[in-house]
Amino acid sequence: MGQVKILVVDDEQDICELVQLNLMREGYQVVICETGEQALEVATSKLPDLIVLDLMLPGMDGMEVCKKLKANPRTAHIPIVMLTAKGEEADIVAGLELGADDYVTKPFSGKVLVARIRRLLRRTTEKVDETAVVKVHGIVIDPARREVRLGDTTVELTFTEFNILHTLARRPGLVFTRYQIVDSLHGNDYVVTDRAVDVQIVSLRKKLGEHGKLIETVRGVGYRFKD
Q: How much is the pTM?
């Protein structure tokens, strides 16, 4: 396998230099773009393995870039990490809904960004087995039996609660919006709304006892399972 290529899109030179320095230390090849228009052209022609995308860009902003990349079959598979200023919760939610895979808020730690990128790259190279048993933080989730165990204790969950836990626990650290969680609840016999997810999460946490704190709330965005 060749060197991993990462496209960094940001119009702030100091941010680009910081990201580039941290990524090159990890052995990644880095390509820099300063505008959304240039990013689309480079992404389509060079097909990077991952894109770090600032939301606030001159001309075409990061949201529009993300939307166009995910709408293009040639680039739709490329994972995207959004860079955003703190407090822009609406932008974070919108970006995740458009198909971005993760987000990092500014100011940020270079080590944290690299860790997020490494996890995403690993995720894209691994095939997910929907029936595989998930073992994380002392919880055993068996999709084939639809069974959840804490040690020797079996936890009785509803269909929806099981699906939510399975969705989150398979991707520790990855943030899911309420809408993404709703979309993952296939086969249910009633309509689940985004706000109903909050109710299900409360019930799920209660049934998991001390392990319930592993399901973390990301304010204004959604939920994630502790990494």
A: 0.65
- Return the residue matching tokens 């941010």: 15
3-state secondary structure of 189: coil
135 vs 24: CA distance, rounded Å: 33
Interval 9-52: pLDDT, tens: 999 999 999 999 999 988 899 999 999 999 999 999 999 999 99
Say if residue 172's pLDDT is above 60: yes
Token readout for 94 is 């919108």
Say if residues 62 and 88 touch (Cβ distance below 8 Å).
no
Q: Decide if pLDDT at 153 tops 90.
A: yes
Tokens of 89: 């919760």
Burial of 46 (0-12, 13-18, 19+ CB in 10 A): exposed
Burial environment of residue 144 by CB neighbours within 10 A (0 to 12, 13 to 18, 19 or more): exposed
Residues of the chain with CATH 3.40.50.2300: 5-125
User: How many angstroms separate the CA atoms of 95 and 112, rounded?
Assistant: 20
d(CA 19, CA 196): 39
For 5-125, give the CATH class. Answer: alpha beta
CATH topology for the 134-225 domain: Arc Repressor Mutant, subunit A (1.10.10)
Give the amino acid at 58: P
